[in-house]
């Protein structure tokens, strides 16, 4: 835990740890309110699509893995799938599989909202579920294996799921190949690794912050869990900051688009006004701390090929989520990979003209906007949890 107070510039961003620290309290309290608003709390997703990579995805029988759905009638009419499908005019460059699709600019597979249930995300905290062991490790290993950039290794225009990969014997091999010597790797590959490792670290932080003591049945922070999974690997914590800056940069760039978005779900406009008020605070924090120079990536020779490869890999990560054998983990895995993919699209695919809300009102699906802000919430919440662990480590009670 002595290592958990990084200082100075955050690598490959234009921001420093101190700036993120200085805004996170404010960011968290606002984004925490935002995700409770009707627009942001209802999410429709098909959690039961077939795993495209292997047959035996296993299942978590632990009660902590279970989630309950919300009846469609509880979801404001305006945000129900049938109504939404009438306004989605972006069908031109769709590549489809049953139940899902992606467009050329997307970094993820998106649900086409023909199947799937509704979930109230405020009722499903990301925390310890008991999902672990070889099945969970296989998912992480497969995700890290996507960090293999070969430029000509496969047909990058073919969006179909790749054949099952042959896995190396140990996770360490994969991780070593991912972590590598920084200087040996191209910037894009390092960014890819940071994004994944930062997501993994954030999920671990949530698990340790709300851990179930299986002997006493009590929930609470587990310092040893945090030390083992995060604090003894300082770079993992650094990548949570990195992901936070990346998400903030996307929110800052999307500021005008998000401000012009129609959040009204009740017909009274009250939610719309309240949602926009909170959102404008989040956007102004994002403008301050979201300092990331996306133009430094994907430039020079082979830039477009590299970007297409990056997209194919990240789309695969979003499909690997269908193989997660724990409903609750799969839900948050899908939301967060969609949220990150949305941020990547905003940073690396969309120019100012495309981001113009008047010219391009249907730029993002509702699920992308919801996932983006909920993912930012998760990272910001992780940084809050890290602060609490720092206090516990120093012998103070974080609730005082
Ligand atoms: P794991 O976290 O499974 O990690 C496996 C190996 O990866 C480690 O041994 C280490 O070598 C390496 N590693 C760990 N962290 C990092 C990192 N940040 N960067 C690089 N390498 C790393 N469990 C829950 O209880 N609740 C959840 O909500 C939940 N959501 C999940 C969502 C997804 C998408 C997945 C794949 C799993 C989820 N799990 C969840 C399971 C959880 O992530 C762990 O797999 C599980 O707790 C077992 O942890 P572990 O200590 O064995 O190591």
From TrEMBL:
Q: Which domain of life is it from?
A: Eukaryota
Q: Where in the cell is it found?
A: Endoplasmic reticulum membrane
Q: How does it assemble?
A: May function both as a monomer and a homodimer.
- Which family does the record assign? Belongs to the EROs family.
By what name is this protein known? Answer: Uncharacterized protein
Residue span relative to the full protein: 50 to 449 of 1033
